[in-house]
Amino acid sequence: MLAVGSGDAYLNHVLRAHDVDIHEHQPDFAWNPTRTDLQAYLVQEGDQTVGVVVLRARDDVAHVELDWVTPGFRDCAAGEYVWLRSDILRNRGIRRVITPPNMKEPYYPRLGFRRLGESYALDLPAVRPAPGPPPAAEPAA
Prior knowledge:
With 141 residues, the chain is an alpha+beta fold. It has a single domain (2-123), classed as Aminopeptidase (3-Layer(aba) Sandwich). Helix content is 21%, strand content 30%. It has helices at 9-17, 19-25, 77-85, 88-91; strands spanning 2-4, 38-45, 48-58, 61-69, 96-98, 114-116, 119-123. The mean pLDDT is 88.
């Protein structure tokens, strides 16, 4: 997952190129590349862009503005990576993710999100500690 600014030319190209498909799945998504309160991510598989995630974070809660992947990657693997395996959100202090309410065919329950009204929510575990050096041996008496 690659963090990019909302004004990133490639991000905006991907959003324009896939506008119809994006709105088919998230009809309420409205993109404004001048917004500074958004975090945007390109979801990559090797050197191929397979999706886009746009978040509006406040404190430790991220509200999903967009969670979209290309048709060939809609098997939940990209979502599993973004929400469960990647540390990028936890490293940015995100502890809870809340999805948009009107997403068509949401996959979130399969990944452990719980229903929250018309949305879904996922509490992220804390950042995993980086492996450190082994404890120092105590000096012999």
